[in-house]
Amino acid sequence: MLKPYYEDESGILIAANFAKVPLSANSVDLVVTSPPYDGIRDYEGYDFSIDKMIDALYKAMKQGAICVWIVADQTIKGSETGNSFRQALKFLEKGFFLHDTMIYGKRGFGNPGVNRYHSVFEYMFIFSKGKPKTVNLIKDKPNKTAGQPAHWGKNTTRDKDGTLKERRGSERTAEYGYRYNIWYYYTGKQHSAVDSEAFLHPAIFPEHLVHDHLLSWSNEGEVVLDPMVGSGTTVKVAKAMNRNFIGVDTSEKYLDECCIPRLKRTKTGDINAIHFQKKSPAIP
């Protein structure tokens, strides 16, 4: 492995193009990242190759590991590029499973268009290297039928001789159920994060969003990777959630100005370091 650019008790940052970083094979439990969107941002001159990126990810990930790929399409000459779908198909071609297609819904939006509806979402493709090894689904969606009988129609059971009997149980619908696969978050300053350094990067995602994916697809002590770590949100949240992290970026500027200051202020296992939003992501 290349010499770490920064290191602490929870993980390392590496200044390099991820495709050229010789990570140990089958060493990563979870990837949470967001690639450059169709050249919409100049990430310090980053040269992005989807083929090399996916090959390197597949090699580094353990069997059953998840890659959360957060992406959207730019509109060029009146048409969305569709590169999000092309990238998803490329993952499938390379041997990944598409475990889920999730939506990151934004409570708010940027500059509105004049001839199309406001864009308020991004894709969150959940790719797995084989059958997912860790699935901790979050139950925080309020059930409208909470307290009512937890069955539709008659609650029946069949005896050994084949007779059907109605079962009178006391089971009731729980107060909260599993989320849908559309998650909603406010974005921007004081919403995505409260760290001023985070916004020195042109594109960040909410700390709460990263927390929810780490909770869903990993356990404490496991290794979380962001191969395009940018503002450092993934590695900060991983450290606060007692995960080990690897962050890679070609830009020493973003590592110095964004990632390292945020990591230095975050204590291992300090869940309170994460900026949680008041409204549940399970509620539109």
Overview of this protein structure:
- It is a single chain.
- The chain is of the alpha/beta class.
- The chain contains 5 helices and 15 strands.
- The chain folds into 2 domains: 6-138 and 179-273, Rossmann fold (3-Layer(aba) Sandwich); 143-177, no CATH class.
- The chain has helices at residues 50-60, 83-93, 207-217, 233-240, 252-265, and strands at residues 6-7, 11-15, 28-33, 61-71, 75-76, 79-80, 97-106, 121-128, 139-142, 156-158, 164-166, 176-178, 182-185, 223-226, 244-249.
- Helix 3 (207-217) packs across helix 4 (233-240).
- The longest helix is centred in the C-terminal third of the chain and has 14 residues, at 252-265.
- The model has no long low-confidence stretch (mean pLDDT 90).
Give the tally of β-strands.
15
By CATH's scheme, which homologous superfamily of the largest domain applies? Vaccinia Virus protein VP39
The percentage helix is 10-25%
Q: Indicate the CATH topology of the largest domain.
A: Rossmann fold
Structural class: alpha/beta
Can you identify the CATH class of the largest domain?
Alpha Beta
Strand order of the largest sheet: 1-2-15-14-3-4-8-7-13
Q: For the report, how would you describe the main beta sheet? A: 9 strands, mixed
Low-confidence parts: none
Overall domain count: 2
Q: Report the order of strands and helices.
A: EEEHEEEHEEEEEEEHEHEH
Please give the count of helices: 5
What is the overall silhouette? globular
Assess the beta-strand content as a share of residues: 25-35%
